[in-house]
Structure formats: structure tokens, C-alpha cells
Amino acid sequence: MAVRGGGSADLLVIFGITGDLARKMTFRALYRLERRRLLKCPILGVASDEISLEALVNRAREAIRASGEVFDERVFARLAKRLSYLHGDVTDEALYLSLAEQIGSDRCCLYYLEMPPALFAPIVENLGKAGLLERSRVAVEKPFGHDLASARELNSRLRAVLSEEQILRVDHFLGKQPVVELEYLRFANQALVELWDRQSISEIHITMAEDFGVDDRGTFYDAVGALRDVVQNHLLQVLALVAMEPPVGPSADDLNDKKAEVFRAMPAMDPARYVRGQYRGYTEVPGVAADSQTETFVALRTEIDNWRWVGVPIFLRAGKALPVKVTEVRLFLHRTPALAFLPSPTRVAPNQLVLRIDPDPGMRLQLSARGSRSWQDVHLDSSFAEDLGEPVRPYERLLHAGLIGDHQLFAREDSIEETWRIVQPLLDRPGQVHPYEPGSWGPQAAQSLQRDHHGWREPWLPKSKRS
């Protein structure tokens, strides 16, 4: 008997193929997979737009060209031959009868739901009623619920139709090269293994800054906010990879077990250690309520109460309309004693280890050396693109993993519920929203979280981004 959701997919079905995600990410990812000859199956797009296949192919061509990808007409021609299209209302059972008639019931499909989260469960339930899930997998984009209760409800509805092995929960941060590399950097290098605990590390800072506002996503964003949009998922998933113990084996469950242990060791966050901000002008964005209290910036302090990390403060911040676009993890090592052998004994700045996730992924080790007059920083930098070659893009990596049935890069439900548990007090008691100027580093109140600590540092930027 076939294993449910096992094996490589022989058909990719994309619900919402005419939407923004397909235009911005999916078509480019499929093109790159085709270029590397990793696509092995046909692709069926499903959406409500009543358009021809030719129009869909043209949309794909335009999206790939607009992405900046080097365009090869021969590669695109191979991709175009894989495409077909079915239009219909995803809430109408007739669509699924048409789908079943078109593809049959014995396919090993990957159904990729590029749809609003409210439609995840209805689509899956309709696929089940039509007998289209027996050997297939379903990929769903975050957010997975909007709080702990809704996340549990969504999981209950999905699990009524699917096994856990059939569900792929997509968080595109888990497909980013430096996030994938974290496991190797930490555990394959003895020099880092010896540094990676509370004996050496005094603080952990994680920043996700965007230099643009909400733009045309006001209606979506105003119902979500920065905490739900990027902290509960992206940043906590990265923190788990930074903090976890080494997995005991190569399977997805081996990795997810260790990530789940980190989340279980984290207490629920304290609203007294949480600052929310909103950039001036946000309420003028179309779709945003005039009296909106939705945050576009968050800063918070948390901790991990286990043997490796107890006593190490962890600071997270994320926001829109900040000075630069950058995502980084910064580890501060403990200070040395005063350097008594110098003519004027002094304490130097602590060493730092920085992993830049975006843009231009890389790693920096910041050391101290004595210059002509006093100590100064010395940076040992690695650019992953230069040292490791052209990176696989996140959606390219995630789509391929979904097609071949590799669960390593997808979030598991127990971890998702734990992250909602961790942030739930901040949702229940969010506190006031502090205004901040676009182009600043958020409200001044965010600095108070780090009183008696190192304070936020200017991010490490690629040379091309430095002013």
C-alpha cells in the first residue's frame, strides 16, 4: 500500500496561480528549477480568473523577466509546456469535481495553496471529498492562524483530512541560505561549537529591518501587524536554529524535535518587556483604519530557560520604514578583564559574531586589536555568494523540497503552537503604540529594553549598501 504523501510528486497544482505570490516568487522559482532541470512534472494552475492558458503563460513570462532573472527563451519554453490552467471558485464543490475529472484520483500531487489562510481548511476539505488526497501533499503559506486558539483549530481541520506527513507549512525564511547553513556552521566547526553557549555568549540580538512601508498591502497588514507577520514565525524559527542542540539524525523530525525543545524552554513573553511602534503616515495608507493601533515595529526581550542559554538575554526587533533593509543575528561574547599589560589598562569591546541573512548573506567575526593609538575592531568577513557560489533562492529550495517530499525546511505543528503560546500574552495585552519617524530605528522607548545591556548596533551592511 502506498504511503500517504510519500514519494516525488507527479503533478504540481497551484491554487492562486494568478495572485501576487506567484507573480513575485513562484514563477521565478519554477523557472530556476527548470533551468537546473529539477522540474520533473506538469504544473496545473487553479484560480478564479477566467483567462486562457496563453494569457497565463504570458503572465509567467512577464513575471520572470520583471524579477531580474537572466531570461533564456529555451528554458522558458520547457516550463511553458508544463503549464495548464483550470478556473473556478475554490469554495464551489463543482471545481473539485472538474479537477478530479481532469487529473484522476491516483496522482501523487503537491497542492500548493497560495491563498488567504481562511481558505486553507475549506480547500483541503473539498479535495478530500473529491478523493484527491490519498497519495498527495498540501503546502500552506503562513500565517498558520492568528493566535493559539485559531492555530489549533486550523490544525484540527487539516488533520481531520490529512496526516502530519502530508502537510507542509511554508515559512520562506526556512528556505534562505544562511538559515539553512546555520545547522552546518554551528555543528561542523569546533571553533564555533566551543563558543555557542552561555559560558561565552552574553547576549543575542536578532534584527529584521525593512526600509519600506506597507505600500499597497494596507488591508492585509492592518489586521496582522509586525508581531504576527514576522516575529511569531520568521524570527522565532531563526532563534530556534540559533539556540537548538544538535539533531541526533538526518530526518526532518530529528531537526524539528530540537527546535521544539527550544520553544518549550521559552516562557511566555512579558508585555512589560515589549515595545510597539507605528511609523507616522501609516494610517494614511489605503486600507488602514484612521484610528489604527496596529504596530509596524516591535522590540522585545525574551529568554530560553535551559542548560545552554539560561541567563542570556535575547532581544528581537522588526519593523517597517526603518533606515535600511537587513536581517541579521548578532551574538555578543563576554567581555575580557581589563588589559593590565597595556600602559593605560582598558577593557575592550566584546567580540561579536554576526550572521547576515539578507541582503548578501554572510558571516562576520568581530575581534579587537591594538592599533597605532588604541584598540580597534578587526573584521573577519565571509560572503556566502563569493565563498559558496550562487545561492538557491528560498522559494526555489522550498518548492523542490515539497515536490520530492523533504520535510526538513517546513515548520511542524507542535512548534507553531508553541510559538503562538510564547507570543500570546503580547496579543492579549499589547500596550500602547509609540509613533516613530520613517527612516528612524523605531520609537525611543525601544532603547529602554536594553538598559544595562549592549544596546542595538548598526547592522552589518554589504559594501554596496553603506552610505
From TrEMBL:
It comes from the Bacteria. It holds the Pfam family G6PD_N. The keyword NADP applies. Keywords: Carbohydrate metabolism, Glucose metabolism, NADP, Oxidoreductase. One of its GO terms (cellular component) is cytosol. Residues 433-467 are annotated as: Disordered. Gene3D superfamilies: Dihydrodipicolinate Reductase, domain 2 (3.30.360.10), NAD(P)-binding Rossmann-like Domain (3.40.50.720). NADP(+) binds at residues 48, 89-90, 142. One of its GO terms (biological process) is glucose metabolic process. Signal peptide: none annotated. It catalyses: D-glucose 6-phosphate + NADP(+) = 6-phospho-D-glucono-1,5-lactone + NADPH + H(+). Its EC number is 1.1.1.49. Belongs to the glucose-6-phosphate dehydrogenase family. NCBIfam families: PRK12853.1-3, zwf. This is Glucose-6-phosphate 1-dehydrogenase. It comes from Mycobacterium botniense. The lineage of its organism: Bacteria, Bacillati, Actinomycetota, Actinomycetes, Mycobacteriales.
